[in-house]
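ok trying this again, last paste got cut off
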Amino acid sequence: MKTTALHPIHVAQGAKMVDFAGYHMPMVYSSVKEEHLWVRKEVGLFDVSHMGLFKISGEQAGQSLQEIFSNDVNKLSIGKAQYTLLLSAKGGIVDDLLLYRITANEYLAVVNAANVTKDWGHIMANIKTEALWENLSDDWSILALQGPRSQEVMHHILNESTSSLTSLNDCCPVTFSNGATGFVARTGYTGEVGYEIIVPHEASNGLWEILEQGKHNLKLIGLGARDTLRTEMGFCLHGQDIDETKSPKEAGLMWAVHAQGDFLGKAALDKHTAGKKRLGFVLDSNRIARPGQAILHPNSLEAIGVITSGCPSFSTEKSIAIGYVNADLVKSIDDVLIDIRGKYIAAERSKMPFYKLSAQHA
């Protein structure tokens, strides 16, 4: 099993460690609720170094990316990040990812941990325009600094101004106060103000030492709270909410698709009719809906969909869930039942995100 560079620190901090995507990763340090609320109110650090990192460069890098990923790369300015999708030839979602444009001809792509090998093989098999693609996943660490106080912490650890990182999706090369170099982006998967830090493995422990010595009351946060935080925002988790059996039309991700583009899977996607739609639900109970549980019609009790994510929303003190419902029922149904271990629990449709951030967080 693989470990991240910060693995000894996670163990020393008493984290409950689990196998996740082939890595020994921290699931929780204190409690998921405590860590979740800490990120909403203060600042936390996530080790997401199990994620994959690809570098794409060369004069034709932009064109090569435009032919592979779903979003419009031509709209991606230098110093900005873009959410995009990698599709199969049939239009299913192979992965969702963030693409960063570092310079005119240099990009970084951060892909999901469980999909690194699959994504790389899929991309290599479908490249048309030549560019230099490099898989840097085994050499770099990725840390996510998230929460309302993340800006003050970032200001402390950088050896330069944060003026290039003031807006959502800003990204740039940086030098940290200990002399290490890397990249920082104003991105994250919690909905809070936050940053994702990309550094060589050998620099990550030194970066943690700076953070720990800064007396910012910073806490390490496990994957459990990362999941509840992203669910509150209605963000998709690949392998649960999206996969190759679901299209961007069904997942509500057409905003990440270049309508006039000519990319991998586009022809099939254009012909595809969505048979289901991803929706949010708030349960009339404190019970938790789990992936795979059936969504039922409230009158006929007929199965009309399936849950893909569910958890307690610690910020709203409600039980929330995400799932797919038959597309022909979406306009006519507001209330459903969820079959939780043989008990039918009432649930009401809800817009996502489930939790509304205050203006200072957005």
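PB: full thing came through this time. The chain has a mean pLDDT of 96.
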